[in-house]
Design brief:
With 157 residues, this protein is mainly α. It folds into two domains: 27-101, no CATH class; 111-149. 59% of the residues lie in helices and 4% in strands. It has five helices and two strands, in the order E-E-H-H-H-H-H. The protein has a two-stranded antiparallel sheet. Helix 3 crosses helix 4 (91-97). 4% of the residues are buried.
Amino acid sequence: MTTTYPANPSAHFLVHNPVALPVMPDLDQQIAQAHYDLEAVEMEAKKLEARLRRIPGMERLLPNRNYGRPVNIEAIKANLTARSLINSYDEPLASYLGINSGSARIAEERAEARKMAAEAMRLRVERLQQQNAAAQQQRERYAIAGVNPVNGRRLGS
């Protein structure tokens, strides 16, 4: 409640203006909201744990968690093996957790470079096989014609 003074100083009375008090939510509403919030945290934690468990070898590295508590991301960040596994198998999850090191992208680039090198090697081998086949045919023609392939002279002359 606030007290205000009238604009006319000769008035000897005070004017009281009522102030609206905040309405306290019902206890049942608070309990229901707390339960809803706890269930929401639990559902999100279970989804995150399920995604982490899909990564091979990650099951044993998950930190222990009480019901209604979120997954301890800091414990995962502190575990080098867990970070490496997550980066290797689930790059979007690593980004979500803030531990993306780019190693998956680097591994993909290296794999792509290996594929390109293998393709270049295959093309080189193919070209050399064609050259060898052509040289073999030339040697066979020289042999049929009776020509020495080294100096080009007729054999027996």
